[in-house]
Structures are given as structure tokens and as C-alpha cells.
Amino acid sequence: MVGFWFLAPVMVAAALGILFVRKAVHAALLLAVVMIGLAVLYLVQDAPFLFTVQIIVYTGAILMLFLFVLMLVGVDASDSVVETIRGQRVMAIVVGLLFGVIVVLGVGQVSLGAVQGLGAANAGGNVPGLAQLLFSKYVFAFEATSALLITAAVGAMVLAHRERLTPKSTQADLAARRMQAYAEHGTHPGPLPAPGVYARHNAVDTPALLPDGSPSEISVSRTLQSHGTVKTAPTRDIDRLTGAIGDGTSNLPVRGSGPRGGIDGDPSDTSRPEEGDQA
Amino acid sequence: MSATPFLVLSAILFTIGCIGVLTRRNAIVVFMCIELMLNASNLALVTFSRVNGNLDGQVAAFFVMVVAAAEVVVGLAIIMTIFRTRRSASVDDASLLKY
Fold it and tell me: What ipTM does this complex have?
């Protein structure tokens, strides 16, 4: 019972966290906490087979499926806080709390009689006992379950399958499209600049620096930009580049702080003249 | 070891799942809340199995797990299909049948 009183607050807190966290990945991890807690509670209640199944099926398979779909759907799935129906959220919380109070009071008042325990039923082992029930009393339900699983697998395959309606574009098509875009809009036909060129780091989240020292927006992935994890070039690097272009003549205006610079650059370094060491 | 605390915990988890389904907008999080409700009912089934002294409740919980697995597979495939066509996983955006 000590385990229960330790686990129950953790599980309720994690479940409440699912309601309030903004990111769906955090919700999935909190759900994993609740499910592992439930598995331990199954073990406490003489259900070792369900403990194993809960760990393997729920936290192993289903939650991984959730996380996989979250990764596929991407970062645009964040919740908006705008209500489409006015007062819907408040009403939902009020009605939900009423429901909870009623159920908890009802469950608390009902008298269940003495707990008989599973000592006699688990005498020959929990798994043999379950198997005996599954393959005698519930054998038709068990067979129906197999049909259900097959149907679900086929259904998921049908839903996930996408027929290719247009022929796959070849390299020649891509090149022609690129040159057409160049002719019509003046888009650069070559490849995009690689991240990290002339910057201090060559990581994918560091934008390349253009010849004038400003960071190039198209050199980093749009996904990283919408995550907000793009590192700006340190101001010192930009200044050094600007100085190198000026070549010690110092008639070029030295950029005090680059565009969105100075986040991880040291601001005290911006005023230090470093023209000499690059020329 | 009394059975009532387990049932109260199950009721609380079920209520939290309910509120989550009603308030959250991301379809995947709504799905997670449905899983939470199914798990809460599983806890009640296992508890009743212990109260009654036979394994029928555990068999029922096992069946609930199987059905939940099938439901998750199909549901997530549907969410992926909707996301592919509408570029959104919000439950408010799938509203074509309204008009």
C-alpha cells in the first residue's frame, strides 16, 4: 500500500500535466509516466501478466507510435489558445469536475464487501489461469480479437498508402524547373548555401555569413527557424569579417551589432578592434 | 489492502482524460487523453478482479488493451491522412461536414 500512496500522486500530477503542457511531445512523455505507474499498480494487484503487457504494449508500442506520428506531423501541431466556441473550455472544465466529483463520491460510498484476493485464482500461476479462461470461456471473443487486429492492420495500411498520381519528376525536369524559375523570377539556380560557412561553427543551426558579414537566412532549414533554435553568428565574428573587408582602412562602418547578433556573442568584444589579424 | 483507493484513483484519471478530450485541440493529444481513459478503466477492471477473487476482470482488461492497440493504429493513420490533406492536426480544422 506504500507503493500506491507514493505512485498515486505522481500519476495524478502527470495526468494533470497532460492537460496543461503546450507541446504534444511533453504530453506523450507524461502519459508514459502514468502508464508505467499503472503497470506497477497492476503488479501490486496480483496481475503480473498485465504488468508485462502494459509495459510492452502501451509504453513500448503505442507510445512509440504516438511519438513517431508526432515527429511526422512536426512542429506546426502546437495548440492554439483561441477558443472557437465561446465559453467551451470553462464549461468543459466545470462539467468534467462535476462528473469527477460524482464518480468519486459514488465509488467511495459503494460497499464492495471483503476483498477476496487472487490467491486462490493465481494458485496455478497467473498466466496459466488467464490462458485457461481465454481459451475456454472467452475463446470466441479471443478469435474476434484476432479478426479485429487483422482488420486494423489492413486499415492502417490502406489509410497510409498513397497512390502516386503524377509521374515522379526526373533530374532533367528539376533542372528545367530551376532554370525557368531563374528566367522568370531571378531565383538563384544553384544549390542553397550550406550552413556554417564563414561562421564560427559549422553546425546545421548556424547560418552562413554573407560577404558583408550578415547571416544568410536561406542557409538554415525552415524547420529549425520555426523551432526558434537557430543560433546567430557571434557579433565578434561579424566584426572580424567586416574588418577584413575594410582591410584596415576603417572607413567602412563597423557593424556594432549584427542582425540579431549578440545573443551568444560576447557584447564586450564588439568594441575591440580586430582589423589587423585577418588582413 | 482495500479496493476503494484504486477505484478512486481510476475515477480521477478517467475524469482527467475526459476534461482533456473536451479542452485540448491537438488531435494527437486528444487521442492520448482517450488512452488515459481506457487505462483508467483497466485499473478499475483489475481492481474488481481482485475484489471478486477471479481472473475474469484481468481478461477483460487484456481485451481492452487489444482493442486500444487496434484503435490507436487506425486513429493515428486517420490523423496522418487528415494532416496530409489539410496540413493541420487541430481538431477544429476538420470541419468540412459542417457546411
Answer: 0.93
pLDDT at A43: 92
Q: Residue A252: beta bridge partners? A: none
**Chain A residue with minimum CA distance to B54:** A121
C-alpha cell, A92? 468543459
C-alpha cell at A68: 513517431
CB A197 within 8 A of CB A188: no
Write the residue in A73, A84, A156 that is nearest to B92 by C-beta. Answer: A84
State the residue for C-alpha cell 511526422: A72
Q: How far is the C-alpha of B4 from the C-alpha of B18, rounded, in Å?
A: 21
What is the C-alpha to C-alpha distance for residues B48 and A115, in angstroms, rounded to an integer?
9
Helix, strand, or coil (residue A20): helix
Closest CA to A122 of A45, A30, A191, A67: A45
State pTM to two decimals: 0.74
Question: What angle (nearest 5°) sits at the alpha carbon of residue A15, between those of residues A13 and A17?
Answer: 70
